Amino acid sequence: MVPLFDNQLQLVGWLDPDKHIFDMQMNWLAFITQGNAWSSQTGNWLGPVQALNCFDPFFKLVAWTPEADFRFVPLAIRPIRAIRAKTPLRPTTPILPSRPLGLPAPAAGGSALPWLDWIRQ
Fold first, then answer.
1. Is the pLDDT assigned to residue 30 strictly greater than 90?
2. pTM for this one?
């Protein structure tokens, strides 16, 4: 699991790379299929997930991890609707990471969508 931070450097959730996104209480929020995040509640496309970064449907950065490569710009292609993933077992809560000192400048810019608005699409 890798920590996800929003653009205000707040820890907002956890990413199980290429599989799932969880909130702080390890509730399942989204599944990842072929580099794209899909809402576990609505099945709606949330945006690309590339290089451990989460992007909105406008390809702007919503959540990131300090381990990420910020030179990456996602391809501007909206995928066809994914088949809903099975609900995963709830993972144990990872150890809380230290807060990053700053957000490196993402190549495509930051999203105007706050984390909760993004995840509730």
1. yes
2. 0.84
